[in-house]
Amino acid sequence: MGTASGRRSRWGLRTLGLGYLALLLLMPLVMIFYKTFEDGISPPLEAITSPDGLHALQLSLLMVAIAVPLNTVFGVGCALLLVRHKWRGNSVIDAVINLPFAISPVVIGLSLFLLYGAKGWLGPTLSEAGIEILFSVPGMVIASVFVSLPFVVRETVPVLQEIGTEQEQAASTLGANAWQTFRRVTLPAIRWGVAYGVVLTTARVLGEFGAVSIVSGSRSGETETLPLFVQKQFDNFNTAGAYGASVLLAVLALTTLLAMNVLKRKEDA
Amino acid sequence: MRNARKVTRRRGVKGAPVAALFALLIAVLVAGCGSSSDDSSSSSSGGGKLDVVGYSTPESVYQEDLEPAFEKTSAGTDVSFSNSFGASGDQSRAVVAGQPASVVHFSQAGDMERLVEEGELVAKDWEKQPYGGIATDSVVVLVVRKGNPEGIESFDDLQSKDVGIVTPNPFSSGSARWNIMAVYGTAINEGKSPAQALEAVKTVLEKTKAQPGSARDALAAFTQGEGDVLLSYENEAIKAEKEGEDVEYIVPPSTILIETPIAVTKDASEPAAEDFLKYLWSDAGQEIWAKNGYRPVNPKLVDPKQFPTPKDLFKISQFGGWGKVNDEFFDDETGSVAKIETELGVSTSG
Amino acid sequence: MSAHPASATSAPAPPRAGIRLPGVGAGLGRGTVVLYLSLVVLLPLAALTAQAFQDGLSTFWQQVTSPQAVRSLELTVIASLIVVVINAIFGTIIAWILVRDEFPGKAAVNAVIDLPFALPTIVASLTLLALYGHESPIGIDIGLTRTAVVVALLFVTLPFVVRAVQPLLIEMDREMEEAAASLGASGFTVFRRIIFPNLLPGLAAGVALAFARALGEFGSVLIFAGGLPDTQVSSVFIRSQIESGNDTGAAAVSVVLLVASLLLLAVVSLIQRWGSRHERSTGGLTVMPMSGEDFTKTGDDDGDR
I need a surface site. Which of A40, A70, B55, B187 has the fewest CB within 10 A? Predict the structure, then answer.
């Protein structure tokens, strides 16, 4: 398509598309870095390394360290179940797994708040057993698990479908039991899909704001993750702190993007 | 295409990027957990853990000044703090709903009474504490754009001039209730009848462009360009000026004294909580409040240059105290202000 | 392109198809999955629904039709509709240039599309405010307005459409386009009558998911658009009701949003069933437009890479 109008329309589309991306995605991204280091590196650095800032970072990483393995194990197991075992209820399971994609984080936070609150179905019983869910770490973990539930399943299912069962069957006829087959045949084959799902899960957990905010009460020094820290700093006119934490989160996001891209290529290789 | 080729892959690099990411996370976590567990082990021997729950504006004062200063005193060594600040009404409800709290500091007594009545979390006689259980004072002021282009000098000007007003929602924010009582009280003290004074409140609410949830949110909205005048605490205005915002404030000739109550909760078993309150009422603590724009409750420490005294400074006791006022004006169904807000279509749930 | 698990094998295979847990194991696994899902997802949502109707149907209705609830729902729905239309257009354009065009830095652009998926929403809100708020370096101040709601939603929903359309563009058979072009059809006609109908399933699915996301969006709208009565979206409204202690009202509006989400997911699922005359047959399981495929390679690439 080398016609003049073809060339013109190509440039037209390019300008529209790239211009839109620049205005919407690129400039805000650049802006975070610019605003943070506007007054030098020490204001944001001080804010991040303050006790509350460090605690927020640790708490965010703790959420990842708990929620991601949980959802990975669940995700792989569930994918195996959905793809390898036909069952009438599979589409229901599938539908439920998709829910976290479509539900507002505030609705998620509220539902957890109601379930585990002082007047909820599970709240009083757990309280009496000495387990506090709301306003503390366990509730935040549950919220993180809820919002990031689907990713590993969703990424593993298509891969499992594509690799087919020949290799697994071959292993089985050679006498391997289910676990051996899984470990030596299936898992290596699906690992990039799983890894991709893990990266998406991690990004989602790190970035989670609405649900955790409601469930945790945003108590700085106790239940304030990095995104909540950003909001708190902003509310208190500590723009240096807000931007410092934002830059940190942005860097983590960009690392995630990088990992996603590397893994996409590996999956296709 | 894709199929069978994928299955036979080299073993070595299995999941390497993922593993690396996890290793990094674990490393940071362990480093962090190491230090924080040191904290908790030392605090269990001596001081304690205080959960401060407060209304929106004093957050930075606690976090940046009061708590570090207290930690330097002998009573405060080995004490660690967790902080939660927000709109006074919301915070009060959160504590009743189970949010952990050792020290509670609200912007009006009704929010403290809720803890007495609904959760039995605070002693009934909290007002017998020093200074009537009040941590700091302030006054309701008028915050305007720099240069005061609309020439606003008093609450009466709000009635007569065509201005956009910003004040928080009285059903979530304690600050907003002070604002409304300031308008009401000014009218009463000018000789108007209660019905006329309520009309004055209605006029103000009609001109109110935005009713954010808390005093701090209202200030943020104002500094970002909403409205012509903000009704707020004197301490918020002082903070905004200090932060270099393009605003100034006027202490009206007639306004209300804002008294913000503080107490230790019954759950707070550590002596550290009582010690912290004692510190807040000590000269050292009161001076920190003054430095941050809050009027000390100790009259000796109030500098008239920084904190001018209005000609007519009235208190909530003139109207029967917050118990009576909350029922009469702010009950979400029968309160007179609730009725006005409903007429104007504003949310009153809370 | 894909291998169907059981049906693909024609050889006389042993009775089991692929990795199979022994009978008890499968049941146990299924039980665990169901338990996990119930505990994490279903139970909380049940508690939410119970709270919404706790004081009866009339209270539910009263809460949902209160002035501010209605105002925020209107704003949310209208803003979301505007946003999905805009992003349907621009998303398709961007997918197009990523698949059919070549320019320097294309791989980087392709990577950046996923930024809204990776960046925390509160950070997005902060930077949009810095860029387009009252301290804007380029003089555009839309902070605390309804336009801000639209811009924030545009940001978070862009990847949905792009990633939904890309795979379809890649898979498309170019022959028909080329035939039409050689018969004299203009570029636009080719697009309208040949390309667009093929994109429709993916586009519709992407739009439905984007719409669901937009309806519930919270963090990115919070700081940038604020919670003023005029600019308050439903999620912010729900949050303020929680803080005010009005759990029933918050739950009631939440149930409305929840029902909308469920409907949209059902729509996506139907679309994928309809569109599954395409090769992408998934055995009844939905495919989300984020699967880890490299979508910058151009359409007709069957060769090795």
Answer: A40
Contact of B20 with chain A, judged by CB distance below 8 Å, is answered with: no
ipTM: 0.90
The whole-number average pLDDT for the span B325-350 is 81
Determine the residue type at B146: K
> DSSP of C61-122, one letter per residue?
HHHHTSHHHHHHHHHHHHHHHHHHHHHHHHHHHHHHHHHH---TTHHHHHHHTTHHHHS-HH
Instruction: Give the closest residue to A229 by CA, choosing from A62, A56, A59.
Output: A56
C103-A256-C158 Cα angle (round to 5) = 55
CB–CB contact C241 B349 (8 Å): yes
If we measure between CA atoms, which residue out of B75, B95, B83, B57 comes closest to residue B281?
B75
Look over chain B and give the mean of its residue pLDDT values, rounded to a whole number.
Answer: 84
- The reply to whether residue C243 touches residue B87, judged by beta carbons under 8 angstroms, is yes
pTM of this structure: 0.83
Which residue in chain C is spatially nearest to B5 when comparing CA positions?
Answer: C304
Please tell me the predicted confidence (pLDDT) of residue C1. Answer: 31
Supply the DSSP string of B120-159, one letter for each residue: --B-TTGGGSGGGGEEEEEEEEEEEETT-TT---SHHHHH
Q: What is the pLDDT of residue B29?
A: 55
For residues A60 and A253, give the distance between their C-alpha atoms in angstroms, rounded to a whole number.
Answer: 13
Residues of B in contact with C245 (CB under 8 A): 90, 93, 97, 349-350
Read off the amino acid at residue C14. Answer: P
Is B210 in contact with C228 (Cβ distance < 8 A)? yes
DSSP A89-122: THHHHHHHHHHHHHS-HHHHHHHHHHHHSTTSSS
Give CA–CA dist C117/C130, Å, rounded: 20
Q: Best mutation site among A237, A257, A261 for testing chain B: the one with the most B CBs within 10 Å?
A: A237
Question: For residue C204, what are the contacts with CB-CB under 8 A and spacing of at least 6?
Answer: C267, C271
Spatial distance between the Cα atoms of A91 and C296, rounded to a whole number of angstroms: 31
Query: CA gyration radius for chain C?
Result: 23
Match 């290793």 to its residue by tokens: B23
> Tens digits of per-residue pLDDT, B158-201?
999 999 999 988 887 888 899 999 999 999 999 999 999 999 99
Evaluate whether B40-136+259-301 and B138-258+309-343 have a shared fold.
yes
Place of tokens 């400039």: A27
* Whether the predicted pLDDT of B24 surpasses 60: no
Q: Could you say which residues of chain A have pLDDT below 70?
A: 1-5, 268-269
> A31: part of which helix (H) or strand (E)?
helix A27-36
List the CATH code of the domain at B138-258+309-343.
3.40.190.10
Give the start-to-end residue ranges of the domains of chain B.
Answer: 40-136+259-301, 138-258+309-343
Low-confidence stretches of chain C (pLDDT beneath 70): 1-24, 276-305
pLDDT higher than threshold 60 for residue B69: yes
Query: pLDDT tens across A93-139, in order?
Result: 988 999 999 999 999 999 999 999 888 899 888 888 888 889 889 99
Interface of A with C in 46-65 (CB under 8 A): none
Q: What is B40-136+259-301's CATH topology?
A: D-Maltodextrin-Binding Protein; domain 2 (3.40.190)
